[in-house]
Structures are given as structure tokens and as C-alpha cells.
């Protein structure tokens, strides 16, 4: 049993050290968001762009435009109230790779409007450019 526990700990440490879970979450989110016809080719191109961004320091392109942000907000606003909950807001940022597990957002008790969501997506410090630098 002890040997298995050590291997599991080593595996977990490896994944954390190399931020593999964050990378896989980002790739999965991008894949589900864009739904390309050729998913393997798309994933390869994203990985290649991340590699180039890291090597050159050139910003990784962020593909979320206004329409994409509105669409994502509307998917979360299932009751069509024009607002989403703080939990939905936080999960939306995580899905886009704009929020790490370490980051703490303060819930001010107000519902999140499209304008606030859009502003956060557009200016959030953990943008894909920052994401690319992590790897």
C-alpha cells in the first residue's frame, strides 16, 4: 500500500509542478467553446501558439470578442434576468482560464451584470497572455 501512495503523491506533485491540470482545463474549455471541425488539429495549433508565445514573449491571441462574451453570459443567465450569480461569474472566469484556484474573488452581494462580466473578461490579469507565460 505504501508504494502505491508514494506513486500517487509523486504523480500529483508532477501534475502540480508542471501545471498540467490547468493546461488541460484551458484546452478543454477552448475546445468546447470554439467546437472546431478538426479538434485534434485545433488543439495542436493552440499548443503551438502557447509554445511560441512563451519562447518569444509575444502575446497569445485572445479570441473572445463581444459576441462571444455575450453568448457565454446568456448561457449562464438561464432565467433571462440580465444578471448572473457570483458563483456563475466565478465559474465563467475559471472556464475561460481567467481565474486560478489560488485567486480569491470577493462577493459584494450584488448580481453580476453583462457589463461587469465583460469588463472582467477583457481586463482580467490572468488573460491567455499571462497563461502562456506560466507554461
Automatic annotation (TrEMBL):
According to the UniProt entry, the coiled-coil residues are none
Q: Which Pfam families match?
A: EF_EFCAB10_C (PF24548)
Q: Which SUPFAM superfamilies match?
A: Dimerization-anchoring domain of cAMP-dependent PK regulatory subunit (SSF47391), EF-hand (SSF47473)
Tell me which InterPro entries the record gives.
DD_EFCAB10, EF-hand-dom_pair, EF_EFCAB10_C, EF_hand_dom, EFC10
In alphabetical order, the GO MF annotations are: calcium ion binding
Give the superkingdom in one word.
Answer: Eukaryota
The segment(s) forming the EF-hand domain are: 72-99
What protein does this entry describe? EF-hand calcium binding domain 10
Please name the gene that encodes this protein.
EFCAB10
* Signal peptide positions on this chain: none
Amino acid at each position: 500500500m505504501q508504494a502505491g501512495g508514494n506513486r500517487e503523491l509523486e504523480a500529483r506533485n508532477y501534475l502540480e509542478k508542471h501545471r498540467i491540470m490547468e493546461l488541460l482545463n484551458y484546452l478543454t474549455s477552448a475546445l468546447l467553446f470554439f467546437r472546431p471541425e478538426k479538434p485534434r488539429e485545433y488543439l495542436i495549433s493552440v499548443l503551438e501558439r502557447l509554445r511560441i508565445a512563451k519562447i518569444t514573449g509575444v502575446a497569445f491571441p485572445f479570441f473572445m470578442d463581444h459576441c462571444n462574451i455575450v453568448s457565454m453570459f446568456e448561457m449562464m443567465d438561464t432565467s433571462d434576468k440580465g444578471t448572473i450569480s457570483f458563483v456563475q461569474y466565478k465559474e465563467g472566469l475559471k472556464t475561460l482560464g481567467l481565474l486560478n484556484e489560488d485567486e480569491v474573488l470577493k462577493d459584494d452581494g450584488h448580481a453580476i451584470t453583462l457589463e461587469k462580466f465583460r469588463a472582467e473578461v477583457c481586463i482580467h490579469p490572468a488573460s491567455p497572455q499571462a497563461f502562456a507565460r506560466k507554461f
